[in-house]
Write a structure and sequence with these properties.
The chain is an alpha/beta fold and about 475 residues long. It is built from 19 helices and 14 strands. Bound molecules: pyridoxal-5'-phosphate (PLP).
């Protein structure tokens, strides 16, 4: 890895190894407008209009900046329904990255999950995974299966410092297989890195061990590689066994051990779309017919050819450590700034974004007032910053209608790759610090309109009491006429 040290060591900051050549103008509504906008959006940051958002930290999905080579490649897309050269170029890039022979294209990550669940999950089946992702779980339960989460205890403790908090508890995996029987486990899903537990990575060693346990028991291993690029960086920088390996060698070693790999290219490869790759033709044949049925013809799978060209180049660029280090380094900077101020953060910094532990930020707020959702609404008021609730609102109710409270109440501040400048990250830290000092003003939320499925996307909530006006009034008092 090339290193750039600063002369004044105490002023070292992450240094971007790229320059910006296309920009988008941003707007920051004033604080009173922000209160009105978040109310209009039902206190759900998904329902805010982007024109009213200054820093869009909702997600890293489909919003990463593309490289000049990606944009250039997208211009040579071969726009044909069948037999497109674009498809061949993408297959070739996937072969280089994963060393896999077969590829099924799909329009995004959850489409791959649908295909996998439709093809392999039967009622009564159990799908072990280190941790669930919202859409993954929804597809598995839709087919009558259930998810078992086997992440190590460290993964659920925001303060526990461990380099690989996304790791599987291997003993629990073995015990689960013995308990339910391998015949009821269609596959083990390895989410590397994790999403809902703060972007925490898995070690290469742990992934290889899980794959080994799968092989010994005749169970298929499935890697969800959507967040693999950050995870690769953490393996390279935190795992002794990988320190002399290139990113590509690490990727090959992991991919070799897996039966199937699927990914969302809205994250992996700085593009849009997704797909499933494998060297096992029998497994591919079991899923193949569903692609034209649900996605599109087998050479595009619902994707736009220009996005496929950008994906091919983006995947190859992901093998460059200097390209994939920007996200984790910015996140680490933000987490450190906030942690040093006393803001409760998930530590160590992971991939995808910085995660605030909302339960510790708002310790007196009852679970049924949704602390992470309330904090997301409050941060929009404080700074026009759109984060994402990753707590109980992101869960689904139990069948009897009771709440299924999340194990972690997090506010995620995603750092889409190569999108923000360091001064914007500093602005974000400043507004979170102000909010932390004024946390006694933040009140809870209650449901106004609650959808049954994936309620966090479109549900609407309202503030309990007038805390949002009081927060805005305090902002005025402290910041004067500043936006
Ligand atoms: C780990 C993981 N898997 C799957 C998905 C689903 O991907 P998509 O949003 O492209 O459907 C996501 C999206 O955030 C994810 O983070």
């Amino acid at each position: 890895m090339s290193v750039v040290n600063f002369y004044k060591k105490d002023q070292q900051v992450p240094l971007e190894m790229h320059k910006v050549r296309v920009v988008q103008k941003l707007f920051l509504p004033n604080v009173e407008e922000r209160v009105a906008k978040i109310r209009e959006a039902g206190n759900n940051t998904f329902l805010l209009q982007n024109k009213d958002v200054f820093m869009d930290m909702l997600t890293d999905s489909g919003v990463n900046a593309m490289s000049d080579n990606q944009v250039a490649a997208s211009m040579q897309a071969d726009d044909s329904y069948a037999g497109s050269e674009t498809y061949n170029r993408l297959v070739s890039a996937l072969k280089t990255v994963f060393k896999t022979e077969y590829f099924l294209p799909a329009h995004q990550g959850r489409a791959c999950e649908n295909i996998l669940a439709e093809s392999f999950v039967k009622p009564g089946d159990v799908v072990p995974m280190n941790f669930h992702f919202t859409t993954t779980k929804a597809h598995i339960t839709r087919m009558g299966g259930r998810v078992e989460e086997l992440v190590t205890k460290a993964g659920l403790d925001p303060d526990y410092i461990h380099p690989f908090k996304g790791n599987f508890d291997i003993e629990r995996l073995k015990a689960l297989i013995a308990e339910v029987g391998a015949e009821h486990i269609p596959f083990v899903r390895i989410e590397a890195g994790t999403n809902l537990i703060g972007g925490q990575p898995l070690s290469m060693e742990n992934m290889l061990e899980v794959a080994q346990v799968c092989r010994e028991n005749g169970i298929m291993s499935v890697l969800d590689a959507s967040l693999l690029q950050d995870n690769l960086y953490f393996i390279k920088t935190r795992e002794e066994a990988a320190k002399d390996m290139s990113i590509k060698e690490i990727t090959h070693k992991i991919a070799d051990a897996m039966d199937l790999i699927y990914f969302s290219s809205r994250k992996l490869g700085f593009s849009r779309g997704g797909g499933i790759v494998s060297n096992n033709n029998d497994l591919i044949m079991k899923m193949k017919e569903l692609i034209p049925l649900f996605e599109g013809f087998l050479t595009y799978g619902g994707m736009e050819v220009r996005a496929m060209e950008a994906m091919a180049v983006g995947l190859l660029e992901t093998m460059d450590e200097e390209i994939i280090n920007q996200g984790p380094q910015f996140i680490e900077y933000l987490v450190k700034e906030l942690d040093e101020y006393g803001v409760p953060m998930v530590k160590p910094a992971g991939g995808l974004g910085a995660h605030i532990n909302a339960s510790a930020f708002l310790p007196d707020m009852p679970h049924d007032q949704y602390p992470a959702g309330a904090l997301a609404a409050a941060l929009y008021i404080a700074g026009g910053i759109r984060g994402m609730e990753r707590g109980s609102i992101s869960e689904q109710r139990n069948e009897d209608g009771t709440e299924n409270y999340a194990e972690l109440e997090l506010l995620r501040l995603a750092c889409p790759r190569r999108v923000f400048t360091l001064s914007q990250i500093k602005y974000c830290a400043d507004r979170v610090k102000w909010l932390y000092d004024n946390r006694h003003l933040i009140g809870g939320l209650k449901w106004k309109d609650e959808p049954q499925v994936l309620r966090f996307f479109s549900g609407r909530l309202e503030a309990i009491g007038d805390w949002q006006d009081k927060l805005a009034a305090k902002f005025r008092e402290d910041f004067g006429d500043s936006l």
